[in-house]
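Table S2 (text version). Query chain:
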Amino acid sequence: MLDLILKAFAYSGGIALTAAGITLIYMATRTFNFAHASMVGWGFYIVFAGYSLLGGTPYYYVPLAALFSGSLGILIYFGVNRHLLKAGASPITLMMSTLGADLILLASINIFTDYLTEVHKLNARYFVLELKDVSLGIADSVNIRGIPFVSLAVVILTIVGLHLFLTKTKFGIAVRA
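Corresponding structure-token output:
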């Protein structure tokens, strides 16, 4: 039972962070971004590739994954959405443009996984990063991993940080407007 609860904390933390990201994107752009899930997917693959090819723990590669995924978002905004916004595109058009970006990102993830599989002989389609996580000890014959605690801490810090940013800074208030 303890194992299930810890895995639920880790999984729900990832979902909460993804939901916070999509909410922030919607608040800033007033459109749904279908490409968000693929940007998150790229983040997971950056962590997987970094860990598998360079070693260490998966946590070492999270900042790189965040920078890469954020760069994809900036690229999509400046490459596609900004031009459509300037042209006065409808919300449906903007939403469809993110669907197109999502298809490109999803295809590129598949190309990258094929590369990892063929060149580096990694099983890039079926992996569980939890198994590579730091072990904190054993309780009730359950291997206690770090991810449930890290996930919970990151979610709390992110939500509190976003709340403070969006309610206490001039730029944050402007983003909400």
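Notes on Table S2: Strands lie at 135-139, 142-145. The longest helix spans residues 91-120.
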